[in-house]
Design goal:
The protein is α/β, with parallel strands linked by helices. The chain contains eight helices and twelve strands.
Amino acid sequence: MCDPTRSHIREMREITESDPVLVTLAPERRGAIDAIAFAVSLGIKISLGHTNASAEILRQAIEAGATGFTHLGNACPRELPRHDNILWRVLDARGLTISLIADGIHVSPALFRLVHRVLDAATIFYTTDAMAAAGAPPGRYTIGALQLEVGPDQIVRQPGKTNFAGSALRPVDGVLRAAQMLGAPWQETWARFSEHPAKFIGLSKSLEVGQPPNFCLLRSGAGSTLESLQVYFGGEKLQETKLN
């Protein structure tokens, strides 16, 4: 971990050139507010996260141009004061688009539902916290220098430890779990795993003449259940997943 600086931000922009870039940072780190303003001036999206920032620092970060909050309810202290904590501060803030890990584990179903009741649905999108073991079956894996274990719950942990080291949740499973937690059809939660984050980062979701199409082809069964998912990127079929 390190304090964000203009030189870090500038190097990132030079490497990525004109590509969309989303950076998560903790606004209470030294120099963070200036780094946020500088990043935004270069067209970089800033999301706050891995933080226990005060309400005042959150306000300063939003004024500097931060527009998102990364996986609310995670990467924060395990025990929170009941009167003033990062959950209440973020929910009370204005101007942030909130992401939630939609697996029913990183965020409890009750908190998941409460966030949807408190915030405008247009300001929520879902993420998986997925890392390189995404979609992998239960077992032990080596990723870089780390030994990791994927559990039956699709949570990734270091062997013998209880803290989370990411997730192996597939986005389509997140869509279905979100629908189950909210008691809503998957067609409603689908947009929060696709259109909402695309809009937040500034990606086009439209099909345009002369441009390679990116889309998903879904096959539904009885009772609007999902049976299969085909992913197309640049007009090429990447994969097909059987869901039932």
